[in-house]
């Protein structure tokens, strides 16, 4: 659970008084236009950016203010925007480097292409395959909560549809909770139970996915679609 989270860079506050929750086994989408504060919020939750105010609570324990590695040990893993894989390392090395007791066989079962390409360098993968690798790397830390920052960025529509199916499999087969920051409504609607909408650094709307999907007036107001 996130309460009153405020974070930013220098004198600029990109996220202000953000409160949201992700239940056990739930998938929640954080929507908003480019620059709304979604990435800042995820980075502050994960400890990659220290919040100015507010709290982040995981399983009843307050983790805000802790170093990122200690938050990760509490069961939270961030898949950053832009994937940020190690391009010169092999697929297997990318996965095992991040391992904290993760199940490599399970990752290869979920992402069969990674098993086939395990000896190849990360740079030889397509954009969609690199996104799978970034998610697989996060799974190697055995997270209870997975943060996905703009996973559809730069991917073709067909690849995005495949990604949606894979994220849904994660929930069914791994049981991980998911918070996904996205601009791609098709992906968000396909995987999430609830949505929050950010505008200018603040949460301006919360609802079930079904309600927001059917309300085109709200979509135009907040997202311009």
Structure description:
The structure is a single chain. The protein has 225 residues and is α/β, with parallel strands linked by helices. It contains ten helices and ten strands. The strands form two sheets. It has a six-stranded mixed beta sheet with strand order 6-7-8-3-9-10, with helices on both faces. β4 and β5 form a beta hairpin. α3 runs parallel beside α6. The longest helix has 18 residues.
Short summary of the structure?
By secondary structure, the chain is α/β, with parallel strands linked by helices.
List the helices and strands and how they pair.
Blueprint lengths: L1 E8 L2 E9 L6 E5 L6 H9 L6 E6 L2 E2 L5 H6 L2 E4 L11 H7 L6 H7 L1 H5 L10 H13 L5 E5 L7 H18 L2 E6 L2 H7 L2 E6 L2 E7 H6 L1 H8 L2
Parallel strand pairs: 3-8, 3-9, 6-7, 7-8
Antiparallel strand pairs: 1-2, 1-4, 4-5, 9-10
Helix pairs in contact: 3-6, 7-8
Report low-confidence residues grouped into runs of 5 or more: none
Give the radius of gyration: 17 Å
Cα shape? globular
Question: In this structure, how is the largest beta sheet organized?
Answer: 6 strands, mixed
Number of helices: 10
Protein structure class: alpha/beta
Topology as a string of helices (H) and strands (E) = EEEHEEHEHHHHEHEHEEHH
Number of strands: 10
The largest beta-sheet arranges its strands as 6-7-8-3-9-10
Provide mean pLDDT, rounded.
89
Query: What helical percentage do the residues reach?
Result: 25-40%
Quaternary structure annotation = single chain
Tell me the β content.
Answer: 25-35%
In whole angstroms, the N-to-C terminal distance is: 29 Å
